[in-house]
Design goal:
One of its GO terms (molecular function) is metal ion binding. By secondary structure, this protein is of the alpha/beta class. It folds into two domains: about 60-380, Ureohydrolase domain (Arginase, Chain A, 3-Layer(aba) Sandwich); about 395-440. It is built from twelve helices and eight strands. The chain has helices at about 10-20, 40-45, 95-105, 140-155, 180-190, 230-235, 255-260, 270-275, 280-290, 320-330, 355-375, 395-435; strands at about 75-80, 130-135, 170-175, 195-200, 240-245, 265-270, 295-300, 335-345. The chain has an eight-stranded parallel sheet, sandwiched between helices. Helix 3 (about 95-105) packs across helix 11, helix 5 (about 180-190) packs parallel to helix 6 (about 230-235) and helix 10 runs parallel beside helix 11. The longest helix has about 45 residues, at about 395-435. It is elongated, with a radius of gyration of 29 Å. The termini are far apart.
């Protein structure tokens, strides 16, 4: 038996169309309608979220897939670098960008006024966006560093800022372990030349690879979250005006300091901030780093005491208070900051979100400094930038790997033949001695 309630198609479509038409809300149906008595727009009604609502972008900023959208221009951006397979102790910082974004939700343009700086970076000249994350493999560090290096080159060498076609945007990288600094510096060096590094950390991170001794070795194994500054120095990326601040690391010996000296770093110990005072720390940084040259601010959250950053990879007792770090960051806001990062947030070790909340505040302070200083002077940009190295396809990487393996085999073959030659030489020498002892 056929149903007698079937609606014919034309009638159904006309009803559906009527339902889909926007409805004009009447004043007596709303608690708060428009001031002039007109019907409110959908944006007025439904676009006013509380800080705990909505999709997590940093500080509720507009989100763009910046690597895929070269036409979108902006001045400052957050970029997540979820990589943590170069750690020497506790992993988990691949989840750092997500955690920092979640902890930043109380920041908005409406409530973005930085009272320490007397400035709101989100309501100023700069267009600030969240660029999402770099896609990075956790399976192969060689490919991962290629992805990061090429990603930062794409973002810095192939993009123009919203305010000037002569300048690239500036980025605050959300790590990730501390090794993500190296690809960022590589790309910045192509734009600005040698970079001053202000390195807030409990550890030196200038250790040579031989400070991580192992029978097993590869070129890639030389890069980890404690050697990336050594690598940056040997690649000629860093200047002679660099600072460590907040140090309290355990050492292999005093020779670690000698290696650090050779890489042109001034050291400020964690205890200096309370023994000599925060202004002494600030002045030491300002005396070391020229204010008119490109500077990178890198903050490993373990610069803070574990009481404030338990969610990190390598804890060291006796660190700075958050207010001390924030005071120092605000006091060096006159420097020319071309990039920065907040790294080593490992949220699984801090279920109370204290570490990520501090991380979000640190990122906010770096953004504030970038924007408050104003646009960068184009005069500090290198005039003769090198051409980008061609992005290598995976098949070409495989060929390079095969060529490397063939070279290694050839090297081992030569070494074996040399060993055999030495053995033969030794045997012939013995026989020659025996012949000399035979009387004629």
């Amino acid at each position: 038996m056929k149903c007698s309630h079937i609606v014919s198609a034309p009638i159904f479509l006309s009803v559906a169309a009527a339902v889909l038409q926007p409805v004009a809300w009447k004043s007596d149906e709303l608690i708060n309608d428009s001031i002039d008595g007109s019907s409110p727009s959908l944006k007025e009604m439904w676009d006013d979220l509380w800080p705990f609502q909505g999709i997590n972008t940093f500080a509720h900023l507009d989100h763009h897939k910046c690597l895929l959208e070269p036409g979108n221009t902006y001045d400052v951006a957050l970029i997540g670098v979820p990589f943590d397979t170069a750690v020497s102790y506790r992993p988990g910082a691949r989840f750092g960008p997500r955690a920092i974004r979640a902890a930043s939700q109380r920041q908005t343009s409406l409530r973005g006024y930085n009272q320490r700086a007397n400035f709101n970076p989100y309501a100023s000249w700069a267009k600030i966006v969240d660029c999402g994350d770099l896609p990075i493999t956790p399976m192969d560090n060689s490919i991962a560093f290629t992805q990061m290096t090429k990603g930062f080159e794409e973002l810095l060498l192939r993009r123009s800022s919203n305010s000037s076609s002569e300048l690239p945007p500036r980025y605050v990288a959300l790590g990730g372990d501390h090794s993500v600094l190296l690809p960022h510096l590589r790309a910045l060096h192509e734009v600005y030349g040698r970079i001053n590094v202000i390195h807030f950390d409990a550890h030196l991170d200038t250790w040579a690879p031989d400070k991580y001794p192992s029978f097993w070795h590869s070129d890639q194994s030389e890069i980890n979250h404690g050697s990336m500054l050594w690598k940056a120095h040997h690649e000629g990326l860093t200047s002679h005006h660099n600072v460590h601040a907040g140090l309290r690391t355990k050492l292999s010996g005093l020779e670690d300091y000698e290696d650090d000296d050779s890489q042109h770093f001034i050291r400020i110990d964690a205890d200096d901030i309370w023994l000599k005072g925060p202004q002494w720390v600030v002045q030491k940084i300002l005396d070391t780093v020229p204010d008119d040259s490109p500077t990178y601010i890198s903050v490993d959250v373990d610069v803070l005491d574990p009481g404030f950053t338990s969610g990190t990879g390598t804890q060291e007792p006796g660190g700075w208070l958050p207010r001390e770090l924030l005071h120092v960051l605000r006091s060096i806001e006159g420097l020319t900051v071309v990039g920065g990062d907040v790294v080593e947030v490992s949220p699984a070790f801090d279920t109370a979100e204290i570490t990520s909340t501090n991380g979000a505040q640190i990122a906010f302070e770096i953004i504030t400094s970038m924007v408050k200083k104003g646009p960068i002077d184009p005069a500090i940009v290198k005039k003769n930038k090198k051409e980008l190295v061609k992005i290598t396809h995976v098949n070409e990487l495989e060929q390079e790997k095969k060529d490397f393996i063939d070279l290694e085999k050839a090297k081992k073959t030569i070494e074996q033949k040399l060993k055999e030659l030495d053995e033969l030489k030794s045997e012939l020498s013995s026989q020659l001695l025996e012949l000399r002892e035979i009387p004629f």
